[in-house]
Each structure stands twice: as C-alpha cells, then as structure tokens.
TrEMBL record:
InterPro entries the record matches: MBL_Glyoxalase_II, Metallo-B-lactamas, RibonucZ/Hydroxyglut_hydro
SUPFAM superfamilies in the cross-refs: Metallo-hydrolase/oxidoreductase
Residues annotated as signal peptide: none
CDD domains: metallo-hydrolase-like_MBL-fold
Domain of life: Bacteria
Start and end residues of each Metallo-beta-lactamase domain: 32-197
Entries under PANTHER family matching the protein: CONSERVED PROTEIN, HYDROXYACYLGLUTATHIONE HYDROLASE GLOC
The protein's name: MBL fold metallo-hydrolase
Amino acid sequence: MTYSGEVSVGGPADVHELKDLMITKVAVGPMDNNAYLLRCRATDEQLLIDAANDAHTLLGTIGDDGIASVVTTHRHGDHWQALAEVVAATGARTHAGRHDAEGIPVPTDVLVDDGDTIRVGQVELTARHLVGHTPGSIVLVYDDPHGHPHVFTGDCLFPGGVGNTFKDPEAFASLIHDVETKVFDTLPDETWVYPGHGNDTTLGAERPHLPQWRARGW
C-alpha cells in the first residue's frame, strides 16, 4: 500500500517502506501526537522517535524485537508521557537535545548537539538543533542514499507553519531563522517532513509560504 502519513488515534499505523529503512507512524494520546518507529532493514535494529503517550500501543508497534534507542524531540510533556514505561520495558537508551534534557523527567543517556549523528543499525540520522519552540528542540534528518531526504521535525515545522512560539517575537524570530537556515536552505524540495502532530508534508509544499510566515509572525 502507498504511504500517506495520515493516521488517527486508535487507528492503524502507516508504514513508509524505504530501501534501507522502514518508518512506522502511529498517532497516540489526547493531543494526537505522532510517534515514529524506525527499523534498519539490514540489521532489524529499531529506534523510536517520541514515546509520546499510550505505552501499550507503542510497545505493540515495537513488537518483540524491542528498540535500541528512544529520541525525544523536545521537553514538552505531550512528547514523553510514555517514555518511562517504554524504557522500563525495553531497556532503550534515551536521547534528547542538550538544552531540553533537564525538562524531561526520565534521565537522558545521550545529550544531543547540533550536527550529532544518531544511528539505528546501519542507518545514520543527523540531529539539528532548532531554538524557539523550546530551547533544545531537535529534528532528525535521514539523507536516504537511494532517494530524497526525510526529516522528523517534532513541533518545529508543520504543514502551514513553524511550531508554536507562544506569542514571543524573539522565539519566533529564532525558530523561523533556524528552520530556514538548517532545514530549508540545506535540503531539497523533495524532502519528506514527518511532524510531531498531524499529517506529513514536503519542503517543496511549504517553501513558497516562508515569506508569509515571517510576515504574520507565527
């Protein structure tokens, strides 16, 4: 089946099958959070992005093979409600942005900085630190050698705009700058965007609207 990225809480997961990586997207919790399970096809090692809520659903998605790592994209509580239970069940190592780790009540094993590499089996993800939604938000870029890049943006970029900066002009200026310079300026239009809530998009679909976002201030 063709991957659409359209999932709903209580509904089935959607699976994006790439040559080297399988990406399973599932929606969980009262805030309709997306969690992404990445599986290296060569080694079967797995990594979870955002143990957001509903540990039962997440552990069922993970299955008997377990996970090696969990990456939390940022400190906001809706993105780590199931983290303690998932880690207890799997023994996974925890990763989070250096400047957000103190706001996550599960100890962070690996503090992530801009440009760091996080591996899942033979697949490499590059972390980019974006400031504005939170001080330490990170996005993960998978530059597929067989196709276009894929970026997991947490709450920093959605269809239609950047993440919430809570009516703080300085935070918005920081986030739009980082999104432009570290995401749009470095990745092509074909890049697939997997956000922390809602449907997927591409950089090409969003790029024409960047001036509008800057003008409106959110």
